[in-house]
Amino acid sequence: MLVAQISDIHARPALSSLQTLERAIGWLRTFRPDALVVTGDLVDDGWRQGYRLVAESLRSLDCPVHLLPGNGDDLQLMRSELAAVDPWISATGPMHFRAAIDGLTLFGVDVTVAGQSYGDVLPHLPWLMSALADVTAPALLFMHQPPFRIGIEVLDQVGCRNSTALLSTLKAMDRLPLAILCGHVHRPAFGRLGSIPVQTCGSLAPPNPLLLEGRADLPVIDAPSFLVHEVSDVRLVSHVVSIPTSDRSA
């Protein structure tokens, strides 16, 4: 089972990330994953045409596509312009999703908070408990803001709050998710929530600098990237796929 994850497109007229998205989608059309999950921040500043262009690109894939909003998204526009891509569980309210694909269950929890850059999982734990209650297959849990400390202060201030409550909820379930998979930080990062692996996906917009322990703002040398998750039985291996900024064959 191959699940691709892209995140943080941040489409806007003056940014090249839509071109980066097209390169990523072109690669995925050849790669042919079993599903794609987009973990938020699709468009900046409520750009309706941006949502339409993202939807057009995603519809070119021959696999199920599931989407979560990010703190930068206009939820009303996102829901209306991408309804043909992912109908979500509810027509109103949080944009959670649950999907079963060949023995693997994908969960998406919308932890965004209106008007804020941080996320909060606490209001959504009752839904998550109910959604997980009857799951016996391996599962992946997707969110936008990560529920663990990245080590970059400006990002940790806008992570997902109430991670301890999330861990307690998950530990009460019969089966832990194989991983919690997030976006938001514009960098691949890897950690744990208790014993559960947590990963953040790189962005299709420009990556963030690695500001660890007060280090200087060094130039960003990372390429835009996304993740491909391979699940076999109860084994998860995740691969970073970098996207060159120009066509190397040119």
UniProtKB/TrEMBL annotation:
Domain Calcineurin-like phosphoesterase, residue spans: 1-188
InterPro entries xrefs: Calcineurin-like_PHP (IPR004843), CNP_phosphodiesterase-III (IPR050884), GpdQ_beta-strand (IPR042281), GpdQ_catalytic (IPR042283), Metallo-depent_PP-like (IPR029052)
Key words, A-Z: Hydrolase, Iron, Metal-binding
Gene3D superfamilies (alphabetical): GpdQ, beta-strand dimerisation domain, GpdQ, catalytic alpha/beta sandwich domain
One GO MF term attached to the UniProt entry: hydrolase activity
Domain of life of the source: Bacteria
Record Pfam families: Metallophos (PF00149)
Annotated family: Belongs to the cyclic nucleotide phosphodiesterase class-III family.
Listed name of the protein: Metallophosphatase
